[in-house]
């Protein structure tokens, strides 16, 4: 067995099929592989159970074969799009998983903030880069971000997805998009009520999300930013902050 097949990947949860709730693949049936651990700490992160080391005892080191047994069981052996998220999945050794799945007709989309890059980005089908706006409390390292684009090359389709809570975030999204005019850009209203990691049924402020959604639509139309796409987190509208959907 090759080294890549035996690499240990830290997994927080594997679930689905559900529909991709965000961005360029919205509505597409998918199985999620959510890895554990992140180099960021966004103030409003909705997946702290896969970020905060307090939850690391819930993360399992898994091999490609172990993950693949779950993915094929959930998809009942029918190839589909696998969504790699986290935490930051870019810090995990995912190249072997992607090669193994591709050989069986599956596709792979990766969600990452663009702070860490890997050679295997070039093997992805879809790369979603989600640089973080000021409200997150994180600073963007644009050199690291550009490394992601460079290593991905012409391999995957690449899209920008930027969370927007307020005017400063919106200005950041405009700047980020202006830097990379060839990338399609998706604006996502922020959820002010991310789930506490231990509580699946936490209330979600749908009215607030809808208000920001309407505000964002006004902003892009007033600015004649006609390349931007504005989309809510569909899974949050459907299932609130529930985990595993
Ligand atoms: C949980 S992150 C995991 C992948 C990677 N760390 C990243 O941030 O792209 C997946 C997506 O959820 C978004 N997200 C996280 N918390 C959110 C919130 N409270 N409201 C809206 N989107 C959020 C992130 O910006 C990212 O686009
Ligand atoms: N349905 C669904 N769509 C999603 N898109 C991005 C998600 C994520 O947490 O990375 C996510 C998620 O957790 N569920
Ligand atoms: S980068 Fe992604 S997973 Fe990490 S803290 Fe921010 S939103 Fe959460
Ligand atoms: Mg999520």
From TrEMBL:
InterPro entries: 7-CO-7-deazaguanine_synth-like, Aldolase_TIM, Deazaguanine_synth, rSAM, rSAM_sf
Cofactor(s) required, per the database record: S-adenosyl-L-methionine; [4Fe-4S] cluster; Mg(2+)
Domain of life: Bacteria
GO molecular function: 4 iron, 4 sulfur cluster binding; carbon-nitrogen lyase activity; magnesium ion binding; S-adenosyl-L-methionine binding
Catalytic activity line of the entry: 6-carboxy-5,6,7,8-tetrahydropterin + H(+) = 7-carboxy-7-carbaguanine + NH4(+)
Binding positions (S-adenosyl-L-methionine): 44-46, 87, 130-132
EC number: 4.3.99.3
Stretches assigned to the Radical SAM core domain: 25-241
Binding site for Mg(2+): 47
Signal peptide (residue range): none
Keyword terms: 4Fe-4S, Iron, Iron-sulfur, Lyase, Magnesium, Metal-binding, Queuosine biosynthesis, S-adenosyl-L-methionine
Function: Catalyzes the complex heterocyclic radical-mediated conversion of 6-carboxy-5,6,7,8-tetrahydropterin (CPH4) to 7-carboxy-7-deazaguanine (CDG), a step common to the biosynthetic pathways of all 7-deazapurine-containing compounds.
Subunit structure: Homodimer.
Family that this chain belongs to: Belongs to the radical SAM superfamily. 7-carboxy-7-deazaguanine synthase family.
Name this protein carries in UniProt: 7-carboxy-7-deazaguanine synthase
Native species: Rhizobium grahamii CCGE 502
Lineage: Bacteria, Pseudomonadati, Pseudomonadota, Alphaproteobacteria, Hyphomicrobiales
């Amino acid at each position: 067995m090759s080294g890549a097949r035996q690499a240990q990947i830290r997994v927080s949860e594997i679930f689905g099929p559900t529909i991709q709730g965000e961005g360029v693949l919205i509505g597409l049936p998918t199985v999620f592989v959510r890895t554990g651990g992140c180099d960021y700490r966004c103030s409003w992160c909705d997946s702290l159970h896969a970020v905060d080391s307090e939850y690391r005892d819930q993360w399992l080191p898994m091999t490609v074969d172990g993950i693949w047994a779950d993915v094929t069981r959930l998809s009942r052996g029918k190839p589909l799009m696998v969504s790699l998220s986290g935490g930051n999945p870019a810090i995990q050794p995912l190249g072997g998983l992607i090669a193994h799945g591709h050989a069986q007709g599956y596709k792979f989309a990766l969600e990452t903030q663009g702070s860490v890059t890997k050679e295997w980005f070039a093997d992805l089908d879809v790369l979603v880069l989600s640089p973080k706006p000021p409200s997150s409390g994180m600073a963007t390292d644009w050199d690291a971000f550009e490394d992601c684009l460079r290593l991905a090359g012409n391999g995957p389709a690449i899209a920008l997805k930027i969370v927007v809570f307020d005017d400063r975030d919106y200005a950041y999204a405009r700047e980020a998009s202006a830097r990379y005019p060839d990338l399609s850009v998706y604006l996502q209203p922020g959820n002010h009520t991310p789930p506490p990691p231990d509580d699946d049924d936490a209330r979600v402020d749908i009215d607030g999300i809808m208000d920001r959604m309407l505000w964002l639509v006004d902003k892009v139309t007033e600015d004649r930013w006609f390349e931007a796409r504005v989309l809510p987190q569909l899974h949050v509208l459907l299932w609130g902050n529930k985990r595993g959907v």
